[in-house]
Structures are given as structure tokens and as C-alpha cells.
Amino acid sequence: MILVTGATGAVGREVARLLATAGPLRILARRPERLTVRGDGIEVVEGAYGNRPALDRALRGVDSVFLVTNSPTEPDDERVAGAAAAAGVRHLVKLSMMAVEEAGADDFITRRQRQNEEAIRESGVPWTFVRPRTFMSNTLSWAPGIRSAGVVRALYGDAPVACVDPRDVAAVAVAVLTGAGHEGRAYAVSGPDAITAREQTAQLSRVLGRSLRFKELGLDAARTALLAKYPKPVAEAFLESAERQRAGAKAAVVPTVQELTGLQARSYRTWAADHADAFAAE
Q1: Whole-model pTM?
Q2: How high is the pLDDT of residue 23?
Q3: Which long-range contacts (CB under 8 A, 24 or more apart) does 100-104 make?
Q4: Whether 82 contacts 119, CB under 8 Å
Q5: Which helix (H) or strand (E) holds 13?
Q6: Do residues 128 and 91 touch, judged by C-beta distance below 8 A?
């Protein structure tokens, strides 16, 4: 039995979809109505990480867990790891981030992820960390501007990043969950090449068959936009991360997708073609 969390998110949804036909699957969901993966062999437990009875129900009889957490303040990793240890879980696979292994990354989000990984190590449950680079799907945030005005607005248009398709991250996670010998290992996951926001805009333009313009945001405008959506420590972490990207810290490509799944990592062009409807003009 495998338990999947985060099954309404970009990676967790794909992990659940890939596992749905492979054997017993249980999903812990705070809002089950948002799940897109369902079936006769899928059991859904409603609950949040802070609800220990629900967490215990979800973990009962489970061999492996795929863990996704996103709260910058709640001790969700500690909660799940502690409950997993008590339930006798044999393998906990955590979705982390590549920055945790980079000495120059010291923003709030990266520090929190390092603390989360440490909490899992200390729980005694055998673990594997899947550490992806930036998701290609993050560019879905450009969709309103593309649909309404044909404009992409972003910070540092010439900063390269080896962004990765969430479907490839999910395939790596499933290989780890269903394979052997991955305990105690951490896997960095990137896309096939480094690409800038200007280049992504050009590729979206070709995929959509319409002219798109890239307009670079200034730092103050970017900060204002982030503060409108996130708490200040999180917004500042995103800005620090962008500075690291501008310095080239996110351009490295790693072969993990090919090595663990046997398939080539998808390009941004492929991701854009598969999600073109999200950017369709109004």
C-alpha cells in the first residue's frame, strides 16, 4: 500500500495517476473534492497533517509514503514523519527542492526545506528525497497576461534555469516508490536544458501561433507583486532565488530523469504544447 499526499498539486496529482493502476493506493487529501484521480482501487482519507487521527487512519497498513508539504510555518514534515514511524512505514519519499544541496542558497524557503529534511532523517523512517529544479508549470502564472494582452511579465528575462516538467518529477518519484535500493539517497531532478524567460516566451509564441512580447519587471514591481500574494519572508525568498538564477546557479542539467525512468526529460517546448489551452487567447 502506498499513500500519496499533495494529490491535488502539480506533482502529487501525477504520482497518483501513475500509481492508480499499479496496486493499492491511498490518498490523504484536505479537500477530496479537488482530486482528479479516482478509481475502484483508490481509497481517500479526508484530513490535514495537523489532524493526527486522520493521519493515523491514512498511514494504517501503509508501506510507502509520498510526502508533499508547502506550509512555511507548520511543522507538517515532523507530523507526518512521526506518525509514519509510529505506523511502521518502511519508506518515506519526500518532494524537496534542489536548492537545499547548494551552499549559496540561504533564503527562508530553502532553510525551511533543510529543516524538513532533517526532521525526516531524525524520525528513523527510511527516506528518499526527490529534489527538483523549478517547475515548468510555474509559467502558468503568465497565462492571464498572455490571454488578455499577449504579454509575459517576469523578473530577469535572461536568467537561465534548467526547469523541469512536473510529470518527469512524478515519474522519478514513482520509480523510487516502486523500486528498490533508493533508501538514504537524494535525487536532484532537472529538465533537459537551461532556458530563460525570454526563450520560454518565444517558444510559447511558436506553440500558440501568435506574437507574444516579453516585458521585464523591475525589482520593485516584482517585490510589490509578490507581497500581494505571499508573506514577506516568502516573497523575499523568491527574490533571493531569482538573484541566484540570474547569477547562473540554476542552469545545471542533471540526467536523473533518464537514469531512473529510462525516458528523456521533456523540453519546455513539449510542456508548452501540452498545456497550450491554458494560454489560449480570450
Answers
A1: 0.95
A2: 74
A3: 100/129, 100/131, 101/131, 101/186, 101/188, 102/244, 102/249, 104/244, 104/249
A4: no
A5: helix 10-19
A6: yes
Which tens digit of pLDDT belongs to each residue from 111-168?
999 999 999 999 999 999 999 999 999 999 999 999 999 999 999 999 999 999 999 9
pLDDT score recorded for residue 282 = 62
Whether the CB-CB separation of 34 and 48 falls below 8 Å is answered with: no
pLDDT for 39: 78
C-alpha cell recorded at residue 100: 537545499
- Which regions of the chain are under pLDDT 50? none
8 close to 34: Cβ distance less than 8 angstroms: yes
Angle at CA 139, nearest 5°, toward 136 and 140? 110
What pLDDT is attached to residue 263?
96
- The residue written with cell numbers 526532521 in the block is 119
Q: How many CA atoms lie within 13 A of 49 on its CB side?
A: 19
- CA-wise closest residue to 35 among 56, 4, 2: 4
Rounded CA gap, 245 and 250, in Å? 5
From residue 242, how far is each of 90, 154, 155, 264 by CA, in Å?
A: 37, 10, 8, 27
The string of pLDDT tens digits covering residues 94-106 is 999 999 999 899 9
Largest CA distance in the chain: 56
Kind and range of the H or E element at 129?
strand 127-132
Provide the terminal-to-terminal Cα distance of the chain, rounded to the nearest Å: 44
